Amino acid sequence: MTDTPGASEARPTHVLLIVVDQWRADMMPGSPALPIDLPNIRRLMREGVTFRNHVTTAVPCGPARASLLTGLYLMNHRAVQNTVPLDARHFTLARALRAAGYDPALIGYTTTTPDPRTTPRRDPRFTVLGDLMEGFRSVGAFEPGMDGYFGWVAQKGYALPPNRTDIWLPEGEDAVPGATDRPARIPKELSDSAFFTERALTYLKGRDGKPWFLHLGYYRPHPPFVAPAPYHALVKPADVAPPVRAATPEKEARQHPLLGFYLGSIAQSSFFQGASGLGVELGEAALRQMRATYCGMLAEIDDRLGEVFAYLDATRQWQDTLVIFTSDHGEQLGDHWLLGKIGYFDESFRIPLIVRDPRAEADVTRGRTLQAFTESIDVMPTILDWLGAEVPRAADGRSLLPLVEGRHPADWRDALTYEFDFRDVYYSHPETALGLPMDHCSLAVIQDDEAKYVHFAGLPPLFFDLREDPHQFVDRAADPACAARVKDYAQRLLSHRMRHAERTLTHFRATPHGLEERRPAR
Known about the structure:
26% of the residues lie in helices and 15% in strands. The protein contains 14 helices and 15 strands. It has helices at residues 39-47, 61-70, 74-77, 93-99, 147-155, 192-207, 249-253, 257-263, 284-314, 346-349, 379-387, 401-404, 430-434, 483-499; strands at residues 14-20, 49-55, 58-59, 105-108, 137-141, 213-217, 321-327, 353-356, 369-375, 416-421, 442-447, 451-456, 462-465, 508-511, 514-517. A hairpin with a 5-residue loop joins strand 12 and strand 13 (462-465).
């Protein structure tokens, strides 16, 4: 198998897919929520097109990345939670790129658990949160267990503590774990963001100008929410927006049983190294400090991306590179009294997406922000379309290139949809608390500019009028005045799921003349 495209290519063709972790959509340059500038992200926005209404179709990390890298909804790939296996039959982005003649490189992680039917049960990959999706060539692995990163830190001469994740404790022996204005104990030169960047530059310099595809993943702004100096002090807590939430956790919890469960169970220790207590116990001052630190973590990523962009500029590869910047999912940051990526609120699902296409055909949208509804499942078809490769029939997403080129297809989606499966996994037990069978622990959302409907397999639905209630505090699912609208959105969601039911082989049929394939318009 060659690692270069066909000989007919007039010039090298490169793809840089940047996937950060836990970056919410409103934390972008120009947004009131972000009190600092991110010049390299802003450069991408200026040279590319920003999709304002973009969501991940699933959370948390494993399901989100499965959708991103297969182009499939959660209802079809069924890697429903971290540690749940991904069926080996799915045609992933890595496999599609190999079919197109690329040797896809990956820095970071995909949080993929292998199919147990294809590997022995004693495979060590079943002992970790997730491993690498097969088909990628790892050139800077973080998984399993962050071994690649911690080995790099030790090789650099840094003495790791017995509990090596303690490098993310606040600086100083007297530091109290939790939201803090102190920096991490690890210096910025040895941060995980520095590690990923060094791996990226090592890989790119080794390519010697040959065509490449690089999935460049960054762990941040994923918790622990502590930043190395000087990023810990870039933003003052007074300069960040306060959380959007009800007056008390108890009032918030009355909205829905699932929300009540999470408000009573999310621990601070998942977000601050060594912390104790519940997330709802964080006061506003602590939340503002957490948000300020989060912004500093974004700034570190921006600086590191600047190093990669500068190398591509210096080697004249920037002009031949498709750059896509996105995240796996968002982060609640205290909104609705929640931390993490869970449930059904926008903060967990709305994520950034920038597509910087170097072709002249994309000049018409450079610097623009588009309002079209886009989803994480569109990334894989977009990359394959740009490379002239075939988009799998089973893919649920659509190429964004028509939008990038200034064309809006008449049949483009009229709503956003996403899903969340909350069955018991090792760190959360909602099905036990709510008294639900495992396969009843799921929800699906459909929303447009007017309203948002949340359907649960085993719990009451939710309905929000987004014009009157953009932050989704008032459930009107049982309001007689909204009955017709609730029915309409429920039917739209059902129709959407029926149209996207698994269809890998549904365009084939046997005939008296042999196998026939019918390719419907996408």
